[in-house]
Amino acid sequence: MQILNILIMAILVYVLVWMQKSYKSFTSRVFIGLGLGIVFGVSMQVFYGQGSDVIASTLQWTNIIGSGYVSLLKMIVIPLIMVSIASSVINAEESENSSIAKMSTTIIGILLVTCGIAALISIFTSLAFNLSAEGLISGAKEAARMSYLEGKAGAVSNTSSLIAQIVGIIPSNPFKAMTGAGNNATIGVVIFAALVGVATRGIKKNNKKAFELIQDATNAAQAVVLKLVQMVLALTPYGVLALMTKVSASSNFVEISRLGNFVVATYVALGLMFGVHLLMIMLCGVSPVIFLKKAWTVLTFAFTSRTSVGTIPMNIDCQTKKLGVPNSIASMSAGIGATVGQNGCGGVYPAMLAVMIATATGIDVMEPVFFIKLIIVVVIASLGGAGIGGGATIAALIVLPIMGLPIELVGLLIAIEPILDQGRTALNVSGAMVTGIVTAKLSGTLDKDIYNANEGETVLNKE
């Protein structure tokens, strides 16, 4: 049976190859791959049963495509961020160069503010759905309440992990960050690349020859990396097919149904926050409908892959070529947005868990001290998120102890983590893209001609 399943996957891949040779649009092929993956994965669950050895062995082979594609994307993330940001700073006009610090501050500020809004929405959504961890976390209400009180007593020591999270954003070893090691590798490379660009500009007056040499080398490196990105992104339909097959075939629908109220509440909160993103786009004077049409492929991949970092190349490509965002802003918003102020993983999830547990322990969530502290802690804890699948769990494990709440619920939700993480990751990436648009609008560099152009229509970017 395993051989039959592999043969079916090979046929599905051939269908996508045939569509490409027939000059079907890239977006169409991505969505066909998504649909085929869902049908194939669900069909395997129906025929073999959830958790079947046949499914497990089949996914080991199909994962060669899915995991291989994600690995290729992660492979080009660090080089892309490094050359894009360094090149943007080095090639910037003097007036633009002076605003680099302002631009990065604006991007981080928008991400953190939207993360706080996401937490606020999650709190009220949790209360509206009457979410509570009572009966899910071990022990009676009194025991949980005692855990809360003990947690408050030890909150100072728990804060050390939060401080370490903030300090860890600064790369002590940029070469280690370039290997992708650690949760803060991406933001570390962003900072280092920007500093390299600023330092390179600093030698322009005294050593113009060296400056021009570095500038030419950086531009050449960027051209090579962008071509590499183009080659990898062409494989997206196949990656989406394999990734969606894995999700559909391995999801535990029984566990999802048992915690259905929490799943529904999570997606309602994610949907409301996505609405905030569209409102922000409207306030920038551009169409949210156009944003949806042009960003949908990127958000679809983020949903299926569950990796904000892996989506960075597609994010930058979409912002610069389709949404009219300058490369310097797009590179920073995509890179920083993959680790800082993630609206889904850093905002929605930990706030929702905190409300569920607090309600079970008899704590008044609307008590001003608890309410305000929760939002502040969630925002600060969102600095330097992992940017990969499971990053929300890390955020929750930082927020809950600082709030003096037990963490048992985090482990219990692992069973439905994939279905939740898909929506959260898509919201993370949406937040990064919207941040790029808003930052470009505020700086007066948003190219509305590119933004409003039809798909496939060529418009020269002004940068």
Polypeptide structure, described:
By secondary structure, this protein is an all-alpha fold. It contains 22 helices and no strands. Helix 11 (236-250) packs across helix 14. Residues 138-160 have low confidence and may be disordered.
Structure summarized in a few sentences:
Helix content is 77%, strand content 0%.
List keywords for this structure.
mainly alpha; 77% helix
The helix-and-strand class reads mainly alpha
Rounded average pLDDT: 82
Q: State the share of residues found in helices, binned by percent.
A: over 70%
Strand content: under 5%
CA radius of gyration: 23 Å
| Uncertain regions spanning at least 5 consecutive residues | 138-160
Straight-line N-to-C gap: 54 Å
Write the layout of secondary structure elements.
Blueprint: H1 2-21, H2 26-48, H3 53-91, H4 94-97, H5 100-128, H6 141-153, H7 155-167, H8 174-178, H9 185-202, H10 208-233, H11 236-250, H12 253-258, H13 260-283, H14 288-305, H15 312-321, H16 327-337, H17 343-360, H18 368-381, H19 391-402, H20 408-412, H21 417-443, H22 448-452
